[in-house]
């Protein structure tokens, strides 16, 4: 039983061959199969074409052919001395374009739109593209603004965290230095840290119902055991308020104890502090001059 000429085994074995005499019977058979396959594929393609596609294909084929010498137009041109291959028209001295050697390609109008409507549609498309690009640019600018706002917020949050850390360090140092000189209470109540101790429970009898209720009261103390106000949650403060408190406790540490929290050292006196400490802020300690020294 012979193989089907449309099967994959046959088609995959066909190679590109130039036209001419077959080298063998097998070669001739493969060429015939290839030719029938191409014809079948072309027939299938034509059957699947729409009427508009068939009309366009016939029109393109007709326009691609040169002017027939049997046409009346060619006969009129021949009487005026025209021969195949010659160009038409007079060449101007200021015109570099080549003269025509073939008919002007025509564009068939396949719709019922008026003349010039294509230009109008092109302008509308360009306007839509410009509007789309403008909208994209605005969205990109808004995105950049959001990114900038996010970066600013991150910088502010980072700065606040740094200031809070410095304030905590200064309060801890202030407490230790004050206790060294047997100072019982801080200069300002918030200079020292306060710690919450075990809650006290009081039994209160309600006069209305005669029932006993328990009321719990929170109590805070300093590290030396003396009563203290509740610890302040500085995370709820804004940056300006935190910096104000930090500056106040820094001045106290420098004036009373000759201590700098950023240097991490206690100096002998005010002159020693002024001579060896870069300044009373983190910025002065982070400067290049300070690091170079």
Task: Describe this entry's structure for a reader.
- This protein is mainly alpha-helical.
- The protein is built from 9 helices and 7 strands.
- The chain has a 3-stranded antiparallel sheet, with no helix packed on it.
- Helix 5 (117-180) packs parallel to helix 6.
- The longest helix has 64 residues, at 117-180.
- The radius of gyration is 49 Å and the shape is rod-shaped.
- The protein starts with 7 loop residues before the first helix and ends with a helix.
- Keywords: Coiled coil.
- Belongs to the GPATCH11 family.
- It holds the Pfam family DUF4187.
Brief overview:
With 293 residues, the chain is mainly α. Helix content is 51%, strand content 8%. The chain has helices spanning 8-12, 25-48, 51-64, 72-79, 117-180, 239-256, 270-276, 282-286, 288-292; strands spanning 195-196, 200-205, 212-217, 220-221, 227-228, 259-260, 265-266.
